[in-house]
């Protein structure tokens, strides 16, 4: 699969400005038939056009302000599994919470998320017109678009809204389900309303894609949809629903867990047996020295490497419960080691293909695909959901399927399996994949930050926080408020 560049790529533009783009034209672009890119105003006439539109959306996801880098860094840095070696290198606000509506607010999350949503909405509206004329060949693409829109809203509501199980009545994000008029000023919907829409989109998308359950590498296909449902329902504490979805994926036979011996090498492969939804990165979308992999690597191993983010001692101590844990196979000494001579294996090489940096078969070792949903996560979802539905035997079994990657640790049993054991395993297995912060917040755990590793000064949060701290959600940027004054009174309380 080859996901290529979209014609228009505006990552810092306010939402209303993006909406207006849906009504603009691009005559030069229409001079020849596109094959790999689209824009919000492009018409859909054939299934090939629909595929082009989907490719464009996938490309937008690979932006540095989204899955290409910042979104995954956010989850682990704010979750305490990452720390920084020094202030002032860029993106340190992901760790220090140094963001306001007017500075360091990471508004790219908002603008890029809504730009992706706008592209999905445009595809859906074009398909609806074709279906009104009797066409039935676009169902699968409609299912994909709905599933992707659900993912984008899930990401946005977790960034800007309180956890569903903490305060679902709080403000979430605006629900924009169609192209808006130029003078529209959408308000924020509640967290509950956003989740309701997410579930609705996923349910409809699943039905539309049910006729083709084969793997579509690089795309959010049928089982990718079901896997996402498992993740979303876990956040909603719909444990029965999460377990049913996770079991459907596990029992499908479509995917297979790596053996402990295979695990480390799997990061040098594209679309392996555990990959459920993997974002394709090629030489055209490769971020190079600003890529996710480069931000995790050891300082001085390659020119310009700075060791931007490194694993915290808390994570390393967790992984160090077993010195033979196979997940050490993607960890290496970091910048702290190079400065002090103290062994500190805080550099992560998941996104460089492994310690030898082979990439995953492309010319550039930084153009490594982003694994958004993996089978191992689904096993861990099944473990947590089974535990909370009272099936402790199944919970232990699902957990042990992943826990065996640390052979010195005693297997979980029906008597010993616990939320904390599952949470620890999620940290070790999903490190670098942007899950830790959201896990800690939804499970109502305190987060301790490793500020003292190199005495990084932090003034915008305490060393330990929990979900009562208002800064766990991002501010709406001032640019967005200026473009849409209806949001002025809907700013998150911490930033008023």
Number of strands: 8
Q: What is the 3D shape? A: globular
Structural class computed from helices and strand pairing: mainly alpha
Number of helices: 19
Mean pLDDT: 90
Q: How do the strands of the widest beta sheet line up side by side?
A: 1-3
First-residue to last-residue Cα separation: 45 Å
Strand content: under 5%
How helical, in percent, are the residues? 40-55%
CATH architecture assignment name of the domain at 1-65 and 106-212 and 466-496: Alpha Horseshoe
Q: Write the H/E string, N to C.
A: HHHEHHHHHHHHEHEHEHEEHHHHEEH
Largest sheet: 2 strands, antiparallel
CATH first level of the domain at 1-65 and 106-212 and 466-496: Mainly Alpha
* Alpha carbon gyration radius: 22 Å
CATH topology of the domain at 1-65 and 106-212 and 466-496: Serine Threonine Protein Phosphatase 5, Tetratricopeptide repeat
Identify low-pLDDT runs: 1-12, 19-35
Question: What does this protein structure show overall?
Answer:
There is one protein chain. With 496 residues, this protein is mainly alpha-helical. It is built from 19 helices and eight strands. The longest helix has 25 residues, at 108-132. It is globular, with a radius of gyration of 22 Å. 52% of the residues are buried. The model is unreliable at 1-12 and 19-35 (pLDDT under 50).
């Amino acid at each position: 699969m080859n996901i290529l560049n979209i014609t228009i790529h505006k990552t810092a533009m306010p939402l209303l400005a993006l909406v207006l783009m849906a009504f603009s034209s691009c005559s030069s672009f229409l001079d020849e038939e596109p094959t790999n890119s689209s824009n919000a105003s492009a018409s859909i006439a054939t299934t090939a056009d629909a595929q082009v539109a989907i490719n464009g959306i996938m490309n937008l996801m690979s932006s540095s302000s989204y899955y290409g880098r910042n979104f995954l860094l956010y989850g682990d840095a704010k979750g305490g599994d990452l720390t920084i070696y020094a202030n002032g290198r860029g993106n340190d606000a992901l760790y220090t919470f140094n963001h306001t509506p007017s500075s360091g607010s990471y508004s790219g999350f908002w603008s890029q998320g809504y730009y992706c949503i706008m592209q999905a909405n445009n595809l859906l509206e074009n398909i609806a017109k074709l279906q009104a004329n009797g066409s039935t060949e676009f169902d699968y693409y409609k299912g994909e678009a709905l599933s992707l829109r659900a993912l984008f809203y899930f990401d946005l509501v977790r960034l800007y809204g309180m956890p569903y199980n903490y305060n679902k009545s709080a403000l979430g994000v605006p629900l924009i389900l169609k192209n808006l008029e130029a003078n529209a000023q959408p308000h924020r919907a509640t967290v509950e309303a956003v989740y309701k829409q997410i579930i609705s989109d996923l349910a409809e998308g699943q039905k539309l894609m049910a006729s083709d359950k084969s793997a579509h590498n690089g795309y959010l296909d049928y089982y990718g949809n079901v896997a996402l449902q498992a993740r979303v329902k876990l956040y909603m504490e719909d444990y029965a629903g999460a377990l049913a979805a996770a079991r459907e994926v596990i029992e499908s036979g479509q995917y297979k867990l790596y053996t402990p011996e295979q695990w480390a090498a799997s990061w040098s492969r594209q679309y392996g047996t555990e990959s459920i939804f993997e974002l394709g990165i090629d030489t055209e979308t490769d971020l190079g020295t600003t890529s996710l992999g480069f931000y995790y690597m050891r300082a001085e191993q390659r020119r310009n490497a700075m060791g931007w983010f490194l694993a915290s001692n808390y994570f390393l101590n967790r992984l160090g419960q077993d010195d033979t844990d196979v997940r050490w196979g993607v960890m290496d000494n970091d910048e702290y080691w190079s400065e002090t001579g103290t062994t500190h294996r805080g550099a992560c090489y998941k996104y460089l293909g492994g310690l030898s940096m082979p990439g995953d078969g492309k010319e550039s070792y930084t153009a490594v695909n982003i694994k958004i949903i993996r089978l191992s996560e689904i096993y861990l979802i099944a473990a947590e959901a089974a535990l909370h539905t009272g099936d402790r035997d199944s919970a232990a079994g699902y957990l042990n399927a992943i826990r065996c990657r640390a052979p010195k640790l005693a297997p979980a049993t029906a008597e010993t399996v616990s939320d904390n054991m599952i949470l620890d395993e999620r940290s070790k297995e999903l490190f670098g994949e942007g899950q830790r912060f959201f896990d800690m917040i939804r499970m109502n755990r305190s987060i301790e930050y490793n500020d003292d590793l190199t005495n990084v000064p932090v003034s915008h949060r305490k060393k330990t926080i929990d979900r009562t701290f208002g800064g766990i959600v991002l501010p709406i940027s001032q640019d967005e408020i200026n473009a849409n004054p209806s949001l002025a009174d809907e700013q998150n309380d911490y930033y008023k």
